[in-house]
Design brief:
Length: 297
């Protein structure tokens, strides 16, 4: 296979990428053309959110070409669609043949949490470990697969502290991994809520595939229902906005677990919850924290 490679200005990176996809290329990636030099410029937003600027000052566009297609013609079509009178200078780069599926799968091994929970990709055998629970979930799927530190932290809290039979609310459930883990660790009634209908569908499918009885839905499902344990792995700003609601969903004497919070944001998030309960850092991992608090009985 071959890649078409060219440099372009910031304002052209996104429209040219879209136009190349419309012209029939298999994929497009945009890289910093100044990567590794003194002119390299970081591009980021708050973790989990897209940056305001979608490109660098100088961009290197890399398009994977279908076999037999003329790269010059494909680029000319894309430029015409964007109103660019002259195509930028470009080059071809050979892509070595590889079994990309096998190569990708080889990068992901089962993840062990606190010696009690295993997150196992479907192409691996489930580890035979007495006293542990396993969740079958593939890395690369949307909405969370256990590899991110914030998910790992929430799973660790559940593995260590979840009481058998207690009710659990996973708010912002994504893939449903936390709700599924809670149920398999012995939780009673378990509900997963998300604002994204696709996440709700994914969570329900994952729960069914793992034999976990979890009710999933949009925020209007089980409105006003309270749980012994409420866990929310989102981001700091939404967590601050949701503070009154999330605290209200915790039963008296129950536990609130929050993550998606950077260490430097922990105090600010804790202050947002202070009118209802006291939050402290339960554990930190790779710059992220898991906050825990208990609602007064």
């Amino acid at each position: 296979m071959r890649e078409l490679v060219f440099d372009c200005a910031e304002q052209l990176a996104e429209p040219l990428s879209d136009a190349l996809l419309d012209a029939g290329v298999l994929s497009v990636s945009v890289e910093d053309a100044d990567f590794g030099t003194d002119a390299e410029r970081p591009l980021f937003g708050e973790p989990g959110l897209e940056p305001e600027t979608q490109a660098w000052s100088r961009n290197r566009v890399v398009a994977l070409l279908p076999d037999g297609e003329d790269p010059a013609q494909m680029l000319a079509v894309a430029c015409a669609a964007c109103g660019i009178p002259e195509a930028p200078a470009w080059q071809l780069r050979e892509v070595p043949d590889a079994d990309w599926v096998r190569l990708t799968q080889s990068q992901f091994e089962p993840i062990e949490i606190e010696g009690r929970v295993w997150i196992v990709p479907t192409w691996h055998e489930v580890p035979d470990r007495p006293g542990t629970v396993s969740i079958r979930l593939d890395p690369g799927l949307a909405f969370g697969t256990g590899s991110h530190p914030t998910t790992h932290l929430c799973l660790a809290w559940l593995a260590r502290h979840l009481r058998p039979g207690c009710s659990v609310l996973d708010y912002g459930c994504g893939s449903g991994i936390l709700a599924i883990a809670a149920r398999k660790l012995g939780a009673g009634e378990t509900v997963g809520i998300d604002i994204d209908p696709q996440a709700v569908q994914a969570a329900q499918a994952n729960a069914t595939a793992n034999g976990a009885e979890v009710l999933t839905g949009l925020p209007d499902v089980r409105q006003g229902w309270r749980a012994d344990v409420v866990v929310a792995n989102i981001l700091s700003n939404p967590l601050k906005v949701l503070a009154p609601m999330l605290c209200d969903r915790v039963l008296p004497g129950g536990d609130l677990i929050l993550s998606g919070v950077l260490e430097r944001q922990a105090e600010e998030v804790a202050q947002a919850y202070a009118p209802w309960l006291s939050l402290t850092v339960w554990r930190a991992l790779d710059g992220w924290v898991c906050l825990h608090g208990q609602r007064p009985a």
